[in-house]
Amino acid sequence: MNDFKDKVAVITGAASGFGREFARLGARLGMKLVLADVQRDALDATQAELQAQGAQSIAVLCDVRKAEQVQALADAAIAQFGVVHLLFNNAGVGAGGLVWENSEADWDWVLGVNLFGVIHGVRIFTPLMLAAAKADPEYRGHIVNTASIAGLQNAPTMGIYNVSKHAVVSLSETLYQDLRLIDAAVGVSLLCPYFVPTGIHQSERNRPDDVAADASLTASQRTAQAFSEKSVISGKVSAAEVAELTFDAIRKERFYIYSETEPLAAAARRMEDIVQQRNPHDPFADVPHVRDLLRARLVR
Ligand SMILES: NC(=O)c1ccc[n+]([C@@H]2O[C@H](COP(=O)([O-])OP(=O)(O)OC[C@H]3O[C@@H](n4cnc5c(N)ncnc54)[C@H](O)[C@@H]3O)[C@@H](O)[C@H]2O)c1
Q: Fewest C-beta atoms under 10 Å: which of 66, 78, 150, 299?
């Protein structure tokens, strides 16, 4: 997809961080936007900002964990604009701690948003895009799934997030192969950012009551939270820059999108471990002070 003008983009997690930057950039490129998020006030603020700039957009309150709400999002997009060209399965949340200490509610929440949100998006929107391609030989569609560098390696105290993002990598690579198999006019990209300043370290702000957290965090969960906050806040690349990189990858039909490439060294070591049948390397080998800090707080 090269020309974005008047094309329709659906963006989940559009009220903050990467999603809001995809929306801002899409608006600047003349796209029509369907903004979806679970946080009403932030969603309304994004919608107001874009409309003030003359963008054609609608805002849909949508919890991506829920299939019927993602279906309603697709129905709203089609009712308003008739077609969807670009889908960002982007909404996501974070939680951490030693992996056996996460509660069932933690798993329900993080896998619900990060994995089932993407599953529902792919399951519900891909057939709509394929139907649009069948009806119009000029049609080109594209799906961008947001995973993370955490989907390519397995750092300690991030297990619940790692699992969700590895699954998104697998789903996206398979989606790519399936679409190529049938010569579809729909492309796929996988966004794997490293730490970028957004609201991700404050994910609990939008944690629904049906998956409420335990009253008190364990020492490892507090440590993981502090680590995530420090890392996210001090991220070197901005969310706006990641949006630019992402649109550039869509233009060039590039599948893997990274905000930084240095962290891939740990991912490469992990893959080499698998092939060489070695035990897993320390993913913090390049930043030993981080591992030492975690150990200092957790090993008594
Ligand atoms: N910021 C980083 O360092 C980083 C790194 C790698 C991957 N990511 C991924 O980027 C994606 C976007 O996150 P971000 O960093 O912009 O964080 P963010 O918190 O700024 O934005 C996430 C948005 O998702 C929304 N959301 C949360 N639960 C939802 C739900 N159930 N349904 C619909 N929307 C929901 C939030 O309200 C928020 O507006 C996520 O998938 C995240 O895992 C972020």
A: 299
The residue whose CA has the least distance to atom 41 of ligand 1 is 92
Q: Tokens for 169?
A: 């990598």
- pLDDT at 141 (0 to 100): 98
Per 3-state DSSP, what percentage of the chain is helix, strand, and coil (rounded to 5)? 55, 15, 35
Distance separating alpha carbons of residues 210 and 105, to the nearest angstrom: 8
d(CA 300, CA 297): 8
pLDDT score, position 214: 84
pLDDT of residue 183: 97
- Cβ(201)–Cβ(169) under 8 Å? no
- On whether the CB atoms of residues 61 and 72 are closer than 8 A, the answer is no
**Mutational test site, ligand 1, from 69, 161, 206, 209, max ligand atoms within 8 Å of CB:** 206
Low-confidence stretches of the chain (pLDDT beneath 70): none
- The structure's pTM equals 0.97
32 DSSP β-pair partners: 8
**DSSP strands (E only) in the chain:** 8-12, 32-37, 57-61, 86-89, 141-146, 186-192, 256-258
Q: What is the predicted pLDDT for the residue at 154?
A: 96
Is 258 tagged catalytic? no
* pLDDT tens-digit map of 68-124: 999 999 999 999 999 999 999 999 999 999 999 999 999 999 999 999 999 999 999
In Å, how far are 22, 34, 81, 126, 255 from 131, measured between CA atoms?
25, 19, 15, 9, 22
